TrEMBL record:
Keywords: Cell outer membrane, Coiled coil, Membrane, Signal, Transmembrane, Transmembrane beta strand
Coiled-coil portions: 342-380
Domain of life: Bacteria
Gene Ontology, cellular component aspect: cell outer membrane; efflux pump complex
Designated name of the protein: TolC family protein
InterPro entries: TolC-like
Gene Ontology molecular functions: efflux transmembrane transporter activity; porin activity
Signal peptide coordinates: 1-18
Phylogenetic lineage: Bacteria, Pseudomonadati, Pseudomonadota, Gammaproteobacteria, Alteromonadales
Subcellular location field: Cell outer membrane
Amino acid sequence: MKQSLLIFLLLLPFGSAAMSLAEYLSAVSQGHPELRAMAARGGQYEASLQKAEGAYDSTLIHKSAARLSGYYDGIYARQRYVQPIETFNAQFFTEYRISDQDFPVYEQENQTLSGGEASVGVRLSLLQNRDIDDNRFGIRQASVDTQKWRQQVRIAQSEFYFEAIQAYLNWAEAKNYQAAAQQLVETTRAQQNAIQQRVDSGDLADLALTEFATRLLERELSLLEAEGKVQTSLQKLSYFMGGWKGNFYQSQSSLFTEQSRGWQTLFALAEQTRKDINTHPAVATKLLELSVYQQKLRLADTKLLPKLDLEAAIAKDFGAGPAPLEQAETKIGLYFSLPLQRNQAKAEKSKVQLELQQLNAELDALKQAITTQLEEARVNLNYATRLFEMNHQQVSLNNRLLLQEQRQFELGASDFFMLNSREVDAFKAKLKSIRAEFNIYRQQLRILKIQASLDHEFVVSTAATQTWGNEVIIQRTPQL
């Protein structure tokens, strides 16, 4: 359900001439330099995995020799194909060798029949390196590094899109401030004629016009400051959109209408984003690190064992030659090695065990930190929701007071100073309400950031949402 928050934000109407959040995120997701850098780094991890898997590449070995002078003139050639196999640290091999002429007694093993000798065999480990060895550990570590990068890039992407959406909300909030300031300025200008008429009729002194001009100038300055904030926020948007210079908006109307606010629904959807802590990318990364050290502990255990390797082969000569070479041969050999002191292996195992304890403690601390941050964010969200409710009530009350004061002013039962005070109170209440409303959206986004939910795949798929009236159709939903 984490799509719900972003879907809601995507549906917020920013005026017919304004770029929607969906369009904005679609532009951001198309080849931003930060996203390209993340993708390029992934290729490096995949190359490392391919390099580690190369330990099990097959090998072709050729060897030949000839005596050019002396009593013996024997020549021979040997060619072997070796294929390493992960199971039992085995090696499968086939070999063909052929020789001619005479060899001394101490080199008789080189002699074959005229057609040469073909053989096939296998070598495997029975104790040390049977279940895991350096090559298999290297592949697992490279594989885990690739998986860790995928989790880490989800965190980085979530941070990136969080900042991008924050920039968009900052612009939208600035536009709301600008719209409120613009409305106050227009209202103030509309009062000019009424004040002028009352001055002309003697109901107000000429000083009232000067006072009015001062208030109007103050409000125009506030509007200018609001417009400056809009332009500043547009520069930040330009960064996320790669220097995009299009017309971001034309409408001066309020960007968030009462019908589109939907903050109660937004709060309910945020509560539905709860999920298993073990699926968090940071936790998943730590679990992957633990799996590496568990394999490392197995490797340390196997290095404490004696080395016992078995090799078996079947060989057959073809052609004419000495009679003893005509029959097929079956060979079995054992290699045994036992280190009398194993200080290095014991020290390595002890070190890995301590590192595992450290990682487990770090994992518990990480889970606790994420859980605490989420609970804190939900508390802040609840507080922000209550604060907005009160601010919304305050806006309604101030608007009612302002409307009553305007009527009294038109009837001559009130003065300009009281009307100005009511207008200022209503304006400040509206700004506080805008700030409180956007604080809700930011708290919602913070929850998604803590959960690292705003990854690239999710954002791209959600930005493809289409709306038909009040119906929401999700074109595709990512599997996370």
